[in-house]
Structure formats: structure tokens, C-alpha cells
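Example: DUF6265 domain-containing protein.
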Amino acid sequence: MKTTLKLTVILLTVFAFAMCNTKKSAPFDWLLGKWQRINDKPGRTTFENWEKTSDSTYYGVGFTMQNGDTISQEIMKIIETNGKWNFLVKTPKEEEFISFKIPTIEDDKFECKNDTLDFPKLIKYWKNGDQIRALVSGDSLQLSFEFKRIE
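Written out as C-alpha cells, the predicted fold is:
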């Protein structure tokens, strides 16, 4: 009886230790890497590069090239603060980041909302096989982005 009790205690201890050390995949890790837009306008090439800088911060850069020149650029951050995730976007024309709340996070997708803006009010990202897609929408405009991984 004592041997069975000892064995049970050992097994429960090992199980508890294993459960405490199991790392949960962060909700945006599928976004990491370098991506190229595949549904761009002719003559343009758009890229998004995402990296994870900490357990609570992701950093992205998006830019569009045309005839060898950068014609648009944005810096993006996904940041967790007090258990809530936010999506931050800044273009060179803006002094401060524009903040979007992320009320919906699932395994391979998330939505960002900011109802105070005309455009965009909603940004959606989702994984589609080995690609990522994004939808940026506002009152009367909707833009669709499809990206393939390049690194």
C-alpha cells in the first residue's frame, strides 16, 4: 500500500511539474516572418515583416515599393497591457500611433476595432493555409490583402 501511495505521489508531482512548464503558444506567433502581398496593383510590391520582441509585444513593418521607391510605409505593434491586446499603427505622416482594441482573438485570426475613425474602423488578420490575409474596412471602403511567406 505504501509503495502504491508513493508511486501515486511521484506521478502526480511529475504531472503537475510538466503542466506548469508547458509553454502555451502566443496568440500571434503564426504572423511571424516576412510576407509579400500577392494581390497587389500592377507595378507595386507590398511587404509585411513581423517579429516577436517579447511575450507581450509583436513588431511589424509594412511597406509598398513602386519603381524602386518606397511609396507607403507603416509601423505596427501588437501589445498586451493588463491582459488586453491592442494593435497600434503609425505612418510617417502621423505623430502618434493609432490604437485599435483587439476584442476577438482565435487560433489563427484576430480582429482590431476603432469605431472613432472613418477609416479604418476594422482590421482583420487570419491565416489561410500557408498564407495570411488581411481585411481593412471603414464606412464605405474595404481593402483586401493576401500575403505569401517569403522567409
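The chain is about 15% helix and 55% strand.
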